[in-house]
Amino acid sequence: MSTSETSRFVRLRVELVVEVADPDAVTKAALHRAAEDTDMPEPERVYTETAVTEDTAEALAYLVDPADLLGEVPGIELAQASWSSEQIDYDPNAPDWVLDEEDEGDEDDEGEGDGY
C-alpha cells in the first residue's frame, strides 16, 4: 500500500500495571493538582476531590495524562485520547499476565511496538 492509500491515524495502545507504594502520596498529589486548577468549576472540583480521596485508582487516573506520553514527538498531533484505571490483583508469574497472542502477533507482523 502506498503512503497515500494508508490512514494518517494510528491507534497507540499502552497498558501499564503500576504498584502504588504510597497511596496517600498519590491522593495528596491529585488533591494538590485539583486545587491548582483555577479553571475547574466548583461542582467539578468537589466531585474530583471526593473521587480521588475515596479511590487511589481514580487519583492516579487524574494525575496521568496520555498527552504527556507523547511529549514533543515531532510530526504528530493528538486526535483523541481516553484512559481509565482500576485496582487489580496482580501476580507477575501468572499466565494471565503475559502478552496476549494477538499482541505478540501484532508486534512481529505489524511493527506496532517493540515489546517494552
How many beta strands in the DSSP annotation?
0
Given as residue ranges, the uncertain stretches (5+ residues, pLDDT < 50) are: 105-116
Percent of residues in beta strands: under 5%
* Net shape: flat
Q: What would the average pLDDT be, to the nearest integer?
A: 83
- Write the H/E string, N to C: HHHHH
Terminal CA distance reads 28 Å
Q: Give the C-alpha Rg.
A: 18 Å
* Alpha-beta classification: mainly alpha
Q: Helical element count?
A: 5
Oligomer: single chain
Largest sheet: none
Quick take:
The chain has 116 residues and is mostly helical.
Task: Explain this structure.
- With 116 residues, the chain is an all-alpha fold.
- 43% of the residues lie in helices and 0% in strands.
- The chain has five helices and no strands.
What attributes does this structure have?
mainly alpha, 0% strand, disordered C terminus
Please give the structural blueprint:
Layout: H1 23-36, H2 42-54, H3 56-63, H4 66-70, H5 101-110
